[in-house]
Specification:
Layout lengths: L1 E5 L6 H10 L3 E5 L2 H5 L14 E3 L5 E3 L1 H11 L12 H28 L5 H29 L10 H10 L6 H7 L1 H11 L5 H7 L11
Parallel strand pairs: 1-2
Antiparallel strand pairs: 1-3, 3-4
Helix pairs in contact: 1-3, 1-6, 4-5, 4-6, 5-8, 6-8, 7-8
Length: 216
């Protein structure tokens, strides 16, 4: 039995969706941002990061991409990734890490770095440059989906699609703006939202319909 430490619409969403798709047994532990920032949570997640996934032996995993990679490897019979060790699995990992480091990571850096810039005009310029960089990453995803979709691994739905969906919710200036620019990504997001196993999870995070998450 897993324990998912979860905050609505945070980086735990993809893991929450993945656990539901795999029908893996887990306990969902809703947390508030204040609880995540509390020193007590550092005993569970040393960097105070969400998601955190408690394992049956008492250890806890963190970093969303690492948790996704672990879960698909731990439950290969659920077919949420290509066959472990195959070239397709290598491509799966490349895309997962790309999205984690470049889209997710740059998005986080946009806010943490801009907080260190006191001049408002410089802060706005920095954020605009970083958001433009993220847009370029999304265009790479769009090109892949348009060429070989509907899913990121072609015809096979996988955990990658859940991860990408989560990231679209945080797009600046909005999820809808990304959909308008990238129709293949919009199609992927709609298909994820239509998956029966995810209805309750997406409702619990308030993102069953587009625009449920207020982008900063």
């Amino acid at each position: 039995m897993y324990k998912l430490y979860n905050v609505k619409t945070w980086g735990s969403l993809a893991v929450h969706c993945l656990l539901e798709e795999m029908e893996a047994p887990y306990t969902n532990i809703w947390m508030t941002p204040e609880q995540v920032r509390a020193p007590e949570f550092r005993a569970i997640s040393p960097l105070g990061m969400i998601p955190a996934l408690g394992l049956a032996d008492g250890r806890t995993l963190y970093e969303s991409a690492a948790i996704v990679a672990f879960l698909v490897a731990a439950h290969p019979e659920k077919h949420m990734s290509p066959e472990l060790g195959s070239p397709d699995y290598g491509e799966f990992l490349s895309l997962l890490v790309f999205m984690s480091t470049e889209i997710y990571g740059t998005g986080n850096f946009t806010y943490s770095a801009s907080d260190q810039v006191k001049d408002e005009a410089e802060r706005a310029a920095l954020k605009a440059a970083l958001f433009q960089q993220i847009e370029g990453y999304w265009l790479l995803i769009e090109k892949r989906l348009a060429a070989s979709g509907p899913w990121l691994m072609g015809r096979d739905f996988s955990a990658l699609d859940l991860y990408a969906f989560m990231l679209t919710l945080w797009n600046s200036p909005s999820e809808q703006a990304l959909h308008d620019k990238c129709p293949a990504i919009a199609k992927l997001s709609a298909a994820v939202r239509a998956r029966p196993k995810l209805k309750a999870v997406l409702e619990s995070h308030g993102v069953l319909k587009p625009g449920g998450y207020p982008a900063a």
